[in-house]
Amino acid sequence: MSTNTTSVWRKKLKELEIVVVIPTYNNGKTLAAVIEEVCRYADDIIVVNDGSTDDTANILEQYPAIRTITHPVNKGKGTALKHGLSQAKKEGFRYAITIDSDGQHFASDIPCFIEAIEKEPDTLLVGARNLASDNMPGKNTFANKFSNFWFRLETGLKLEDTQSGYRLYPLRKMNVQSCWYTAKYEFELEAIVFTAWGDVAVKNIPIHVYYPPQAERVSHFRPFRDFTRISVLNTVLVLITCLWIVPRNLLRKLSWSNCKRFFTDHVLNTRESNLKIVLAIMLGIFMGIVPLWGYQMLITLFLAHLFRLNKVIALVAANISIPPMIPLLLYGSYRTGCMVLGNPPDLHLGDLSLENVKSVLEQYLIGSIIFAMACSLLSGVISTVLLAICRRKTDMTKFFVGLYNYFERHKVLFYLSLSVCILFMALFAAQVRFEENVTSFFPDTKDSQNAINVFENLKIKDKIMIMLSGKDGVADADSLIEAAETIKQDLQQQAEGTLIKEIFSKADENLINSVGDFVYDNLPLFLSDEDYQRLDTLLTAGNIAALMQKNYSNLISPAGFALKNYIMRDPLGLGSQTLKHLQDFQLEANYELINEHIFSRDGSTLLMFITPVFNTGSTGKNDKLIRLIENELQKAEKEHPQLVAEYFGGPSVGVYNARQIKKDTLVTSSIALIIIIVFISLVFKHKKSIPLIITPVLFGALFALCLIYFIKGGISAIAVGAGSAVMGIALSYSIHMLAHQNHVSSVQQLIREIAYPLTVGSFTTIGAFFGLLFTSSNLLRDFGLFASLALIGTTLFCLVYLPHFLKGQAHVKQGAVLRFIEKLNAYPYEKNKGLVGGILVLTLICLFTSQNVRFNEDMMSLNYEPAHLKQSENKLAELFDKKEKTVLFVSTGKDMGDATGQYAETNRLLSQLKEEGKIKDYASAGQFLIPEEVQEARLKQWHNYWTPEKKAWLRETIRTEAARYHFREHAFEPFFQWLDRPFQPLDYQNEITTRLLNEWQTSADSLTMLITQVRMNETDKEAVYPLFQPKEKVVIFDRGYFASQWVSAVNQDFYLILYISSFLIFFALWISYGRIELTLMSFLPMLVSWIIIVGLMGMLGIEFNIINIILSTFIFGIGDDFSIFIMDGLQNKYRTGRQLLNSHKTAIFFSAFTTVIGMGTLVFARHPALQSISLISILGMIAVVLVAYTLQPILFRFFITAPASKGLPPYTLTGLARTGGLFLLFFIGCLFLRLLIAVMTLLPIRKAYKKQVLCQLIHVTCKGLIHIATFVHKEKINRTGETFKKPAILIANHQSFIDILVLLALTPKLVMVTNHWVWHSPFFGAIIRYADFYYVGDGYELYVERMRQKVKEGYSIAIFPEGTRTYDGRMKRFHKGAFYLSEKLQLDIIPVILYGNCKIIAKAQPFNVRKGIMLTEILPRIPANDATYGTTYQERTKSISARMKKEYARICREQSTTDNPVFYENLIQNYIYKGPVEEWYIRIKVKMEDNYRLFNRLVPVKGQITDIGCGFGPLCYMLSQLSEEREITGIDYDEDKIAVAQHGWLRTPRLQFVCANALEYPLPESDAFILNDILHYMNYEHQRTLLLRCMERLRPEGKLIVRDGNAANTRKHRLTRFTELLSTGIFSFNKTTEQLCFTSEAQIRSIAQEGGMQLEILPNDRYTSNTIYIFQKKQTGT
């Protein structure tokens, strides 16, 4: 074959990921030729040298490009193939071609395999030889036929050749280690049988074969032994076929309702997923409420079995209908039925009849079904949240993945559930009442409720004033009156009764005439004590005479005709004073009457007052009225060219605000929607992208409205409108899903990677909005409720329904825009020093500028007011307003009697304030609105005053005086009749009374309001208003004051919201992460973002207002989401190495972009409130994203990732607190010593004594610091009782900074030789210099004489011969300086061994003080003249160094026990920041295992250790720490646990973890196998198989250590079984696919005997039935 042709096949092998595996054993003659031939077709070749004793090794050395696996001894062809194929799969190959090395196969047949596998991928291909070949050995032919027969019996497949070694194995389809129990030739049969059982196709393809003549043939086939082994294998395989494979295949064909399934479902098995547990609870709750009395439990049990749910959980949940709960359930069902049927609740308890019972029963039955569904759904949501918190995070993902898989299998059920869900929600959402009342803004407190009622019902606030005037101030009164009458008539015709309640344009003559009648009909009620005093003065003969003369004079005057009736009715003027009180109805004459019409005082403007039917808050309905008024005014101006027609009023301002908000919202929303649609279309390039992003949001809104219907029935329309801003957050959830699908290969993977951060993020955001429920404003409560429920609904849709419309697109090439965005987000912003520095500087600046931000309490500034309304408002101010302002004081009560009492008290206080000059004036109807008790007292006083004698005297006196002026005898009879009439209390419902007091009283909904008008200066308000604040029944109706009071309350609420939201988020994050450090790392960016936002507002002069302060909750919520997603990406990489951060950042970018666009376009709005939203949202989102992209990764890397990458523990808050505390104490100690030195320099004391005192204090300080470190176990060994009284050279190994403290704590008579950084330290450099320490940089020779003097004073000298600290604690080479000084000064040497200090404060991590052991051992003195260690200082350096290293190694061995706290501390820190469950599991597990003391004793100190079922690997890590000579392999089939184990900072090259099934994985030869609590997860046959495999791979003198529950120990085994059910079922901590199968001691003994092993049994059953079995190979001769 040509070179070009073979190169094509070589390329094909590369593309198909095929490797060639060549097993060889003593085939040196043919091996080179086979390799040469294969090399023509393949570049990737693995040769397994199975212990060859010929020149195979030399041949293989000639091919350096070939990967070689060498067995020290021959292990058999099967083992060689196992290792070869296992290595191939490990290297990532998809297929492996195996070819024998004896030359019988032709490499030229490789193309045949390639062509066949291209047609049928993932097939196991077996080369079919020509069995009729001339040189085919007879034994081979027979063996092949024999094997073919058994293969067909075992698999049902017919093959022509089952023993050919020329094969192609599909590595990824096979689980390479699953079928490997045999080691010789029989392996090849075993391999294809197990592969066929695994539903992988097995086929023959024809190949060529060459068998050399008998004389040249090299064969290792041993007929008798190998046929026997093959026969035994076939026997086992046939048994497995009959007992397992055939039944298994049969069961696969049967439906789920078969009998076997039925019985297995009745076994209590709590190993269900979250989904099944939740569904069981929901079923139980539903069945417990529906009215199926007597059959509930039976039906629940049947349905639980039918749907394969946990029966016990379902039955327990169904017991919700226990006696204490029954009344609540019955009433809840009945009330629900009432709501659905629209009937008011009425149980007819006082009138029991068959008809009434039927009515109640109908409502109950209908309501119970809906109530049961609602309770079931609610219990499902609550159960999901609780299970998500209580169980591992992977179980949350399992729940949603399980739900996805279930719906994928049942598509009809999926679409049905989605449709029913939407229809159900839409049905009830459509019935929600939307309220437009603006008073929902106001705080809903006990104090404010009265004000709200007043605001809702006070008519005067809703009036609209029309002003008609002439151009240029020239006005003709008649023309103005004519225009006014026309306008009034037209408005009445078009809107009276529908939009307009009344139009007031002129004085009412009838009302004026009726006023006198009203006064005299009720005069006794209006007379005060002062009036009676006046009467006493009046009723004298002289005064009566004078009055009669006056009456006579008035009658004969020109006005006499008009006064005639008045004089006849009241000749004495008894009611004149009361009539004067009518003037109190007005403060002063701000207007005048012209032809009964109201004009301004200057007569230039005619005024009309319109009272609308609807209040100011009903902007939708008032919009029609405003349009009508505007049309009429325009019409009037056209008809009267000289006329200027204007209007103003609260309803008009409200209407224009609503119009502008709608217009701005429409324009900005359209712009934003277009930009977002274009952007998303460019990015995702999929037609479904827009609907998929928007649908979850709509679903969430429907979900919220549906639940709101059941919760409260109605909601503020304003809250729903404001809640649409929250849709920006909801939109980010679906965007996260769509963006992340580009990084996964399947939807299941998408759910697994996104479910946890999405759920936690939504939960914390919901918590932020949930905080609004604690505010005093009903509107904010509605907003919080709608936002929270909408986010819950959106999250559920994203995780339950949305995945079915997505697919994994990791293999799909993305568009250029998306690639650019992903590249932009992949940039490590946290490494950009300029950006990070800029953010830090900005944060510091903003910290100060944020103090400048104020809260704008003027709500009026947020109003939109068009130019013509502003002009009208100014004109009104010019016409009527002076420096003083009129304010309404409203006295309230539940009825007129209650209100009039408060009214009188209010007027008395106002009168007092008027006298004090605090108000200018006030007007009220207090003279006519009298409390009932006062009326009764006055009537009684009137009756008592007019005695019959007084009346008779008065009658006679008046007649006498009247006769003098010729009055007719009976002229004053009406007066006497009036005086004799019986008077009654006031009738406030009387027509005249109502009309007269119309503007002074209002009644609505059990509330009566009485008005007092007060005129005062703005400056006086601060003094007057507080006097009325304690009075609950008095409401000050001042719009500015009212608004500021409300805004102030909302401002206080905001801080409450902030605290509650912060607490909820912080608590949720803490529960989720399990570590306060991660919580702070997630929380800190939100805090920094908030500082930047507020700081920028301070710089730009933006004030907080009621609108943007609510928006800040939104920014806080979405910032919280971003932080959680960033943390999830960072934590995933640290925990398991998975790269999710860039994907999350891309999704964050999309979310932030859509939010900025959506809110940012409001910059084009004209409404001030909307404009205030835009800028703060843009600034907020930019700040949130930048901080999340930079600060969080920096913090995570600095405190966690960076130390771990260097083999150091991550920082913890506890560790940092310990570090800060100790360093603070050290700093205080240094400061004290510095001050002491300064003081001592001034004292006239000998300098040597000063230094002695200083050294003593240094000794005490160091000793005290060591003593304070209570978290460190301290041990000092001084076997020779060294006292240091005789000066010496102290030498010690140098591991840590605290070594200095340890040495200085040994004796006060000690000085040290220090290096550069210690000598020049700003903290303690001056101290040690003063104490005569020595700097090594100057050279020892320079200090010899000074040291000699110091020695004479009794001081020893401490030196670290290594010169500097070591990173790993191992001793470095000793320098000679210490030994040189010993020789020169003739000083003894005292070696000091320091152990454990490097674990407390490591050189590589100086600011992380950890728990540990501080051991100091003082070795015996070495005399200066001792020649044992040499005669020169060079020789002594080497000898003493060697001795110290030997002693240090001894101490390390002695301390390498489970009692050493360092190892436990390291082990725990290896698992922190990997999830709360993992960390606490390790803490509890290791404590329960007593730090694995027993395993450490049983396991060899040196050799290969294999831990099967290692889980997270705590045992592996502990054993690895305790001995560096152990090579440890941990094996587990749980991918997540292995991923966690692999990414520990403690991991070294001596420790590896493998994710594999131990039944299939090629176990390494080991000195010890450990099977710790794993056997019961497999059936007995698998237990036996695994133990025998371990025995087979056990080295001589090796141990197989098994610990498991002993089922025979029945008393303690219950607890063992219960704990395992908790672990595998309730908490799903351990994975298992089979029933728990605990073995017994007898079964273990049987397996040991079968494997030819000695068995030792150790009880480990203090609480449980756990037993340790130790297998060892039997010694020869035993």
Describe it:
- The chain has 1678 residues and is α/β, with parallel strands linked by helices.
- Helix content is 57%, strand content 12%.
- The strands form 7 sheets. The chain has a 7-stranded mixed beta sheet with strand order 3-2-1-4-6-5-7, with helices on both faces. A 7-stranded mixed beta sheet has the order 21-27-26-22-25-23-24, with helices on both faces.
- Helix 31 (747-770) runs antiparallel to helix 32 (778-800), helix 42 (1039-1073) packs parallel to helix 44 (1106-1136) and helix 52 (1340-1352) crosses helix 53 (1377-1385).
Tally the helices: 63
Helical content stands at: 55-70%
Mean of residue pLDDT values: 79
* Strand residues, percent: 5-15%
Uncertain parts: 254-270
Tertiary shape:
elongated
Record field, number of beta strands: 34
The class by helix and strand makeup works out as: alpha/beta
The main pleated sheet reads as: 7 strands, mixed
Cα gyration radius (Å): 49 Å
Distance between the termini: 62 Å
Question: What tags apply to this protein structure?
Answer:
alpha/beta; single chain; elongated; 1678 residues; 63 helices
